[in-house]
Amino acid sequence: LKVCQIAEWADIVDFQKCFHYAALPALIASLIKNKPVHYDWDDWEIKIYYYSPRQSRFIGYFLNMWETLIPKLVDTVTVSSQRLYDRCIELGVKRERIGRAHVGADLELFRPGIDGSDVRKRYNINSPLVLYLGQLHGGQYAELFLKAAKIVLKQFPKVDFMVVGGGYRLNELKQLVASLGLNKVIFTGAVPHNITNQYIAAADICVACFEDNEITRCKSPLKIVEYLASGKAIVASNVGEVRNMVGGAGILVEPGDPKALADGIIKVIKDDGLKRDMQQKARLRAETKYNWSVTAENLLEKYAKNLTLI
Fold first, then answer.
1. Does residue 74 contact residue 35 with C-beta atoms inside 8 Å?
2. Rounded CA gap, 52 and 71, in Å?
3. What is the pLDDT along the chain (310 residues), one digit of tens a residue?
4. Which residues contact 123 (CB under 8 A, 6 or more apart)?
5. Residue 189: how many CB atoms within 10 A of its CB?
6. How many CA atoms lie within 13 A of 195 on its CB side?
7. For the whole model, what pTM was predicted?
8. Is residue 105 within 8 Å of 181, Cβ to Cβ?
9. Which of 80, 94, 82, 70 is nearest to 13 (CA)?
């Protein structure tokens, strides 16, 4: 009822997730109020759902049904990756109804010059710090980071590694650290988003590691644009949209390969000139493309297209 009331004065009804509690009210409101509807698609949710163990096939069936139907039911759709664009085409969505809307960073919240000294003091860090940021569930692959840490520490035993984030895999990852015999890994647990900039600021190298699969090919990882905006040296897995996002401002490595990830980290540790060059390029990349102002312009363009289609 509330969504219908809001839709009364709206020009377009927009929703992001395919879950029933977001999609169904939006679709009903757009139908009742005769408003065009737009879907902003940012993840292949059914693939993420089945990544987690012991999921209900009954729920999965309906989630898959919704995620398959929604792009065909709406007037326009924006996608965060080439793979989701291709998926729309596979589902029969006309190209003129599809737009691009990658994630962006808040350029004021995430920027060079943020003070990360409190984070270093809190965890007694006096060495180079390599950071992984992200939720520890849903296909995030933090285990690659930990396995790479073991390789790096054999050559650079004083380097610290930090995992910033929480999730149902946290205890599993702590057990992995114990089994690997690592004593230079810090787990912060969940951290409010508005202070993650301080953790990024404390780091010398920021990592975004993934395997190559349907989940990661669809992703437009928020952590990468926040690393970019913070002006950090980045080592990331070369999968999906990551190459486009990093755009020469970081080191790309083979996905799913801890040794390749470790080699990328070591390359930055050894070369201060390379690190400084990456830092400068990173911020410029965020300022020119990967920020919310650019994303908003892309959405507005598709909204305008939506209104011409009705």
1. no
2. 24
3. 678 888 888 889 999 999 988 999 999 999 999 999 999 999 999 998 888 777 888 899 999 999 999 999 999 999 999 999 999 999 999 999 999 999 999 999 999 999 999 999 999 999 999 999 999 987 789 999 999 999 999 999 999 999 999 999 999 999 999 999 999 999 999 999 999 999 999 999 999 999 999 999 999 999 999 999 999 999 999 999 999 999 999 999 999 999 999 999 999 999 999 999 999 999 999 999 999 999 999 899 888 887 876 5
4. 160, 162, 186, 188
5. 11
6. 10
7. 0.92
8. no
9. 70
Give me Rg for the CA atoms of the chain: 21
Contact 93, 72 (CB under 8 A): yes
Where do we find the tokens 């755009």? Answer: 247
Which tokens is 201 given? Answer: 């600021």
Return the closest-CA partner of residue 204 out of 291, 146, 140, 125.
125
Cα 271 vs. chain centroid, distance in angstroms?
27
Q: Where are the beta strands (DSSP E) in 88-165?
A: 98-100, 129-133, 160-164
Q: H/E element holding 86?
A: helix 82-90
3-state SS assignment for residue 15:
strand
Cα separation, 237 vs 254, in Å, equals 6
CA-CA-CA-CA torsion sign (208, 213, 217, 218): negative
Residue 189 and residue 209: Cα distance in Å, rounded?
18
